[in-house]
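Appendix B, Record 12. Input sequence as logged:
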Amino acid sequence: MKVLLTGCLVLFAFCSFGQHELLLERMSTDLSRQLEDLPLRGKKGHFGFLVDSAGINIEPTTLDRELQRRVKEVLDVYKDSLERDIHYEVSIYFDEYSTGVYPLVYKPVVWEEPTFACYIDLPFLPKGGRVNFMESVYKDLARHSMILDTLSSKEWLKTIKILLEYQKKPSVISDGVLGKLLDSSLVIPWTPGIYYAWPVINLVSISVDKSLVYPSNLPTGYAYYDQVFKIENVLQEKYKNQPVLYKNDQPKPEGRLVVSFVLNLMTGKLEHPLIHEGDIDEAGSFITWLEGLQRSEYPFYWSPLFQATRSYFYLPPQN
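Logged structural output:
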């Protein structure tokens, strides 16, 4: 009898949890219908609310009054079905390229024990900093002065591309001559990067200046290295043996092929694809490939706020 009673309690708790999740999903759907006619593009909003004896209590927010009014109308419909004195959160994203609006009502994660969760975007960083790494790159190149003297201007314009993966050695993936001359600089260790608490793969693109081949000529200002030392995020899966780069929000990245989607957080599906750069047929194949990825393959939107946004996917520009 005790076993039966325990089983019923577990089943009841499971069903209650499932019903509550369905309730939040219905609220999100109703919010989408309530807001879909607003002429807002690229706007984001996020706020929290409680249900107390007075009803829905929305925390201070930057949302304009009309938006707040419409949101509260939907929340009021469900006030008797929500748990009292529980903190809920709402995120809203109005797509900048379509009429799509992506609201999400959810209960934030509450840790039972003190937990540190790092949700910042932290790229791979070379030990000793970028300046030290670039000095090593130029020292490697200076040891091959005879080869450098034979290179064309076109060859000097090709960027050196280095792929950085967790627990793997840095590897040069560019097809130019300069990258093949690197030696000791590839031995320098890098601090692993993270992207919203996920291990990240980075692609480092380095522009080399022929007049700075000797380390004594290297600039010391950080502004210079922001221009010649570029770090981008890379998906785990390759498209036709090419690294796929990604980023969120504007500005739109540069690439020979650039597409974008909005990830619907309720369905886990990529929606409203757009082609920004590249051949239409090739971009269509690229979009189909991205849509076929499993959700676990693209942790490009994760944040503690669960905020939908438009994400860009692109292939690096050809040298």
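Residues 1-17 have pLDDT under 50 and may be disordered.
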